[in-house]
Each structure stands twice: as structure tokens, then as C-alpha cells.
Amino acid sequence: MTDTAPSSSRVWLGRTARAASGLVVLGLTVAVVAAGTRVPDVDDSSVPATRVPVPPSATTLVCPGPLILPDDTGRGDSQFDPTPVAPMTTLTALTASPTGPGTLAPLDRSTTWAKLKAGGDAVQVPSVAAPSIVRVEPVDVPARVGAVAAGLVTAGDLRGLSAASCQQPVGDAWLLGGATDLGSTAQLVLDNPGTTPAEVGIEVWGPNGPVDLTGERYLVAPGAERVIVLGGIASEQRRLGLHVVATGGRVGVHLQDSVLDGFTPGGTELVVPGAVPATRQVVPGISVVASTVDDPSAPALRLLAPGDAGTSAKVTLLGPDGVVELPGADTVTLVPGEVTDVPLGGLPAGAYTAVVDARVPVLASAVMSRPGSLGPLDDAPSVERAWAAATVPGRSGVVALPAGTKGTLVLSAVARGTDAADGGPASGRLRLLGADGVVLAQRSVSIPAGTTSAWTLDELASGTGPVGAAASKPGPSKGVVGLDLVTDDGEAVALAWALVAYVTEPDGTLFSVLDPVAVPHAAPDVPVREDPRLGTR
Fold first, then answer.
1. Cα separation of 94 and 517, whole Å?
2. How is the chain split into domains, by residue range?
3. Which of 63, 267, 61, 257 is nearest to 149 (CA)?
4. Nearest residue to 191 via CA among 145, 238, 241, 128
5. Which of 117, 141, 197, 207 sits between 20 and 30 A of 381, alpha carbons compared?
6. Residue 3 burial (CB < 10 Å; 0-12/13-18/19+)?
7. pLDDT digits (tens, 9 = 90+) for 420-438
8. What is the structure's pLDDT at 146?
């Protein structure tokens, strides 16, 4: 009889062999992993890199909607109408070659109001009932596009020209302007052009320092607008500074600032974001009428050091003939967190640019007033006001002119060194754009360092402007709807500029200061290098 059961020795040998083979496999695995971790990095410099171009993206601008009408509750006079004249809200958008096609649409994208053809175009929407979006496609370079929303009111609480250039949506914005004290109304407007909700936080500063808020955050739905009445969260502030931070999406931001002196309109304007805090701030477009030192309607420069450290700020005012002396106001002590107004009364009529230098980052803006004529039933003349925001010198851009208005270009040359007035001239190339996008005229502009020059659009178009705006192509004096300025890069002296839009009414001049829409820089090519171990990276 044959014994078919394995013996104990054979069982032991089989188990030993299987265990040994397992150890061999495990050892090889560990060796391979360890070897992989010990392989030295390949020298990337030995592998040539290929530069891959990054195509430019479409440009999206968010435009303010109609003015927010006042609440007449509590006036005690049922016969009084705070808005006897309905606001006229218009939207103007234009593109300069080279550019792709574009569209104008409401914020919720429910329809399309107008289209912009490729290669350069201009469109005006005469009656706008909602905040809007201007979207323009690029070509090989970012689109050159500008747009402006304007509300014109000739009588009532909101009397004035309230206009603002449309802006690219942002996640971080600084605004310096407005008030919430007696007779003043400040309403922060948030527009979300995106497809996701945006959560917005707000910091507020006043004349006595930071305002203690509850820490509440505000949700702005996609394609929607949200209005925050600042008097409800930061009341009795004679001067305001704001920092707006959005997460989850980008928003358009502006502040509607209105003032009433009893029943007399004191001006309505849109305060827009300015340059971020920096040790130098430049505020162009300060267009003033003659005033006295103690004139209550004199222009003023608003300053804020938003950090924890105070500073001494040097203020340099650049006029047509160079630096203008500011006795008692050329050096200003800024307490950290306190919003300060520096009066600019006594200046001759004209256009100026303010340059503010400090040891710590600061904010700057300017407010201007123009009294109107006294009406038969008025105790005091109505007042028109405009705010000018700080900008970054040296930026090329496009600015659109509101429908029914005239314009004055204000250009200044600011040296990049310690002395803002020290250096050679700043230069650029200016194109005047017509209603169908055609180039009506071209100009080469050159401004001496430390000076500010101003030309009406009629002067620029006809070639009769002052020296420094040499005509390279004569053009008609009418039909200008916008400007396209290309600044010369790399200069030690840079151009800072703004457009003052105005309309003359029987009871006075209404005006707004418009910043150009900056043309984004083309994205740099991305270097791509083949990795011998992992492929392409």
C-alpha cells in the first residue's frame, strides 16, 4: 500500500520555500522604491525649454446701474418731490484696434443690449435700467476697451452728473470718499458678474479711526446687485475710507455719495476704487474753479494711513507751470486709521495733479465742488461735486465719454524718483475715437516733468491745442466718444491722466472725473521642459 500523505519534512520544506520567495519579492520591492528615492535629480538646465504662448483672455467690465433714488420718508411735505426730474442713465462702450468682438448686456446676462464689432467700434445705450457687463474678446493681444455709465439729473436731490468708468471685477478694492454725517448719504453698491456667489467683507475708517463693525459678511448672488447703506453700520462719519474684500467671486464696487444742505442739493457722485495703499499716491484730474482759502466749497485732498503706523505725508501739487506751493499743507501729519481732509482753497482755476509721498502706505483721493446759480426759490445755490481717485502712472488705457457730454483731457508727468518734478518729459501716443470706432485723429503728447496740462477734446481733434499735442493727423472737432492713450514704457517720468466729463446747464456746470480702463499686459510665455523621468512638465 502506497502512502499518499506528505511527510512532515516535505511540508516544512514547502512552507520554507514559499516564505523565502515572499521575502525575495518584498526585498526587491523595497530596493526598487529606495533606489527611486535615491536617484539624483536630473539637471533641468541640460534639457532645453520650449516657451509656450499663453493666449490672452476676454476682458469683462462691470458698469454701474441707475442711481439709487432718495427715500423721501419723513420730510413732512407731501407736496415735495425729491426727484422732479428722472435720472437719464446711459452706457457708452468702445474698443480700439486691435480687438475682437464684444457684447453689452445686463448683469444677469438675461439678454444682449448691443454688440461691438471686431477691429474697433463704439456703442451707446441711451436708457439703462440695470447694472451691466461689457465683455470683449481679444485677438493676439488683450483687448483695448473702455466703457462708462453715467446718470444725469438736472434737478432734485440727486442733481449732478454721476459718471464712472466701468471696471474689471476685483476681489480687493480700496475706496476713499463720501460721508454719513447729517445731510450725507453713502451707499455701497456691489455687483457680481460671475456665476458663483461672492462673500464680501468690509472695513471702514472715519475721522476718529477704524469704525467698529459687527464683522458681518454680505453675500452677493451671481448676476445680482447688493446695496449696503453705510449710514446703518457706520453712522455720523464726516469722512469715509473703505476696504472691500470678496471671496468666492469677484465683484464690481462703487459708492454713491450724495449731500443735501437742507433742501438744497449738495452734489451726487460715484466714488470708485483707487490705487492700493502705497508710499506714493498720484491723483490726476483735479479740475477746479477759482476759490479762496476759507471757501467752504473749495477742493480738498483726502488722505488715510490704514495701517497701524502714522506718518508724515508730503503733498506736491503739479500745475500748468510746475509745482504749486501749498502753504501750511505741503506736509501733513497722518494719525493711523484717521481719515483726513487737506483743504486746497486759494488755487487758481485750472487742472492739477496731487502727488503724496509717505514713509508708510497711504491712500489718497480728491473732491471738487462747483456752485451753481441761485434759483428763484432757493435760499442757497445748489452745488455739484466730483471725486478723483488715485491711479498708477504709466498705464496705457482707454476712456469713454458719456453720451451728451463734453470732455477735457488732463495729463501730468510724474517722475518716479524721490522728487516728483525732477526729470525729462513724459510722452505717449493718443488716438481720438469716433462713434463707429474710427480713429478721428492721432496725437503725440509730451509733458514736462512736474507739470499738468489740459486740453478739451475739441482742441485735440482740431489740432489747435497748446504746444505738446502735435497733430499727426488732423481730424473733425465733433463726434469724439473716447480716447486711447499708449504711454511710453520704461521712462523715468510717467504719464498720469484722467478725463473730466462735463455738461453745461442753465444753473451751472455738472461734471465727473473718469479714470481710464487699463489695458492688461499680455501674459508671458510659459517655459515647458521635458523631464526624463516623468515626461513633460
1. 11
2. 82-518
3. 63
4. 128
5. 207
6. exposed
7. 888 889 999 999 999 888 8
8. 97
**204 close to 213: Cβ distance less than 8 angstroms:** yes
Nearest-angstrom CA–CA distance, 390 and 401: 20
Higher pLDDT, 357 or 462: 357
Q: How far apart are CA 258 and CA 492, in angstroms?
A: 40
**Which triple of cell numbers denotes residue 96?**
480700439
Q: Do 423 and 449 touch, CB atoms closer than 8 A?
A: yes
Joined together, the cell numbers standing for residue 31 give 530596493
Q: Which residue has the cell 519579492?
A: 25
Q: For residues 165, 432, 413 and 499, what is the CA-based torsion angle, rounded to 10 degrees?
A: -30
21 phi, psi to nearest 5 deg: -65, -35
SS3 call for 488: coil
Q: How far apart are CA 304 and CA 276, in angstroms?
A: 12
Provide the total of helices (H) and of strands (E) in the chain, helices listed first.
Answer: 2, 38
3-class DSSP string for 283-309: EEEEEECCCCCCCCCCCEEEEECCCCC
Of 38 and 216, the structure prediction assigns the larger pLDDT to 216
User: At 437, phi and psi to the nearest 5?
Assistant: 85, -5
Q: Are 440 and 480 in contact (CB under 8 A)?
A: yes
219-222-223-225 Cα dihedral, nearest 10 degrees: 0
Radius of gyration of the chain (CA): 30
Between vectors from CA 274 to CA 349 and to CA 219, what angle results, nearest 5°? 140
**Closest to 188 (Cα-Cα) out of 104, 254, 133, 98:** 254
**C-alpha distance across the termini of the chain, in Å:** 72
pLDDT at 39 over 80: no
Q: What is the pLDDT of residue 277?
A: 98
Q: What is the pTM for the complete model shown?
A: 0.85
**Choice among 96-100, 272-276, 293-297, 382-386 with the minimum mean pLDDT:** 293-297
Confidence of residue 50 (pLDDT cuts 50, 70, 90): confident
What DSSP line would sit under 333-390, residue for residue?
Answer: EE-TT--EEEE-TTPPSEEEEEEEEEEEEEEEEEEEEEE-PPPTT-SS--EEEEEEE-
The pLDDT value recorded for residue 526 is 64
CB atoms near residue 160 (< 10 Å): 32
Categorize the per-residue pLDDT at 16 as very low, low, confident or very high, splitting at 50, 70 and 90.
very low
The helix (run of H) or strand (run of E) holding residue 22 is: helix 8-38
- Cell representation of residue 55: 493666449
Q: Which of the four pLDDT bands, split at 50, 70 and 90, describes residue 314?
A: very high
Tell me whether strands 340-343 and 184-191 are parallel, antiparallel or unpaired.
Answer: unpaired
Q: What is the pLDDT of residue 10?
A: 38
Q: How far is it, in rounded angstroms, from Cα 173 to Cα 272?
A: 9
pLDDT in tens, 250-288: 999 999 999 998 888 999 999 999 999 999 999 999 999
Grid coordinates given for 497:
491722466
